[in-house]
Every structure is written in structure tokens, then in C-alpha cells.
Design brief:
Shape of chain B: globular
Shape of chain A: globular
Mean pLDDT of chain B: 92
Structural class of chain A: mainly beta
Helix content of chain B: under 10%
Largest interface: A-B, 22 and 24 residues
Low-confidence stretches of chain B: none
Largest sheet of chain B: 7 strands, mixed
Order of helices and strands of chain A: EEEEEEEEEEEE
Number of helices of chain A: 0
Oligomer: heterodimer
Largest sheet of chain A: 6 strands, mixed
Mean pLDDT of chain A: 92
Number of strands of chain B: 11
Number of helices of chain B: 0
Strand content of chain A: over 45%
Number of strands of chain A: 12
Chain lengths: ~110, ~110
């Protein structure tokens, strides 16, 4: 079945460092891909998405490019802030048997220190 | 703004009790979802509903049931709570008719079963 694999955390960075969180997926066909973020004590919120190959999603300085050839959707940010400390989830959405649900990775915790 | 609310942020129940978790969304979304979130396991889908009185099993439905009598409300029921159901429960909704696309999450209910 469909699955998402993301790098294990925690990822610990200093403020203004460059961030990469790796995400790869397994799916039959061409899913839509998402990054969600969960701040402490809150539910998940959508960070960015891409619906077809070579699409780049971006929001709040974060970017991810849908790479069909490597089945990847890595999350990047050029300069992280303390306020970016959160858990990040990669997810895919794919139509199967007439309906679709989200399949999530296990999440990667990001800790940014001043 | 889409708002998804959950009836409790924290809940403590005893083994064998019947537990109701309530979720309400205010954006007239067709689809609603219940997940549980556990450390190291990410989010796992318990049940979802794409219309009033309709329900579909997710990946881990055992020990749970759901009810959707009104479009805005989706309830998760633990018929006889057990300690292995101690977890964070997240509700979500989405508007896409086929379930694709962005989901909006509530803040979660942390359930402890003793």
C-alpha cells in the first residue's frame, strides 16, 4: 500500500541555519503531497502542498518540490527561527477505490535554539 | 477561518468505561476524520465519514465506532475503554468531494485510560 518515510528526529539546529527534512513516498500512480506542521499543544495545520510532478509548494519561507523520479518531497528552509520548532509531517493523498485519505509519515521534530 | 473544535483537551477515563469524543466543524465540510497520534507511530486513521450517516473504516478501527447524525458533528466512541487506547485523538475535516486535498485539524483530545 501507500506509505511515507521521513527522517527521524529530533533535528536540532541553531537559529538561521539551513533546514532539510527528507521525505520519500511509495504509491501507485501520482499522489498529491503535503507537509503539515504541529506546534506544541496544537493540532496539525497545512504548511504547503504540491499536486503534480515538478510542482513546488512554498509557505512561510519553507519549500518542497515534488520529484517523481526520486519519489521525494523534501522540506527546506534557508534560515530557521526559534518559532519554527515543531513537529513536521509529510503526507500523501491518493485516490483508491473511489475515495481518498491522507497517509502520514511518522513525523520529524525540529528544535531550533537561539 | 475554518474551525474544528473537539469537546475536551484532556480526558481521564477508567478501563471498561464507554467514552465519547466529539468533534464539530463550522465550514459545512462533507468529509470528517478521526486519527490517533502516538509517539513514533505518527497519525493513524481510525474512521472517516464522507456524508451524514456514512462511515468508512480506516487503518485501525478495532475497538472504536463512530456516529455522524449531523453534517457538522462526528463522534468517536470507545465502547469499552482499554489502557492501550491511551493516546492523542485528532479530528479533521475537508471539503473536497472525493477526499483529496487539505484537511483541517482540531486541537486534539489527550485521553488517558487508567
Amino acid at each position: 500500500g501507500d506509505s511515507v518515510t521521513q527522517m527521524e528526529g529530533p533535528v536540532t539546529l541553531s537559529e538561521e541555519a539551513f533546514l532539510t527534512i527528507n521525505c520519500t513516498y511509495t504509491a501507485t500512480g501520482y499522489p498529491s503531497l503535503f507537509w503539515y506542521v504541529q506546534y506544541p499543544g496544537e493540532g496539525l495545520q497545512l504548511l504547503l502542498k504540491a499536486t503534480k510532478a515538478d510542482d513546488k509548494g512554498s509557505n512561510k519561507g519553507f519549500e518542497a518540490t515534488y520529484r517523481k523520479e526520486t519519489t521525494s518531497f523534501h522540506l527546506e528552509k534557508g534560515s530557521v527561527q526559534v518559532s519554527d520548532s515543531a513537529v513536521y509531517f509529510c503526507a500523501l493523498s491518493f485516490m483508491n477505490s473511489g475515495y481518498s485519505t491522507l497517509t502520514f509519515g511518522k513525523g520529524t521534530m525540529l528544535l531550533v535554539s537561539p | 477561518d475554518v474551525k474544528v473544535t473537539q469537546s475536551s483537551r484532556y480526558l481521564v477515563k477508567r478501563t471498561g468505561e464507554k467514552v465519547f469524543l466529539e468533534c464539530v466543524q463550522d465550514m459545512d465540510h462533507e468529509n470528517m476524520f478521526w486519527y490517533r497520534q502516538d509517539p513514533g507511530l505518527g497519525l493513524r486513521l481510525i474512521y472517516f465519514s464522507y456524508d451524514v450517516k456514512m462511515k468508512e473504516k480506516g487503518d485501525i478501527p478495532e475497538g472504536y465506532s463512530v456516529s455522524r447524525e449531523k453534517k457538522e458533528r462526528f463522534s468517536l466512541i470507545l465502547e469499552s475503554a482499554s489502557t492501550n487506547q491511551t493516546s492523542m485523538y485528532l479530528c479533521a475535516s475537508s471539503t473536497h468531494p472525493m477526499g483529496l486535498g487539505e484537511q483541517y485539524f482540531g486541537p486534539g483530545t489527550r485521553l488517558t485510560v487508567t
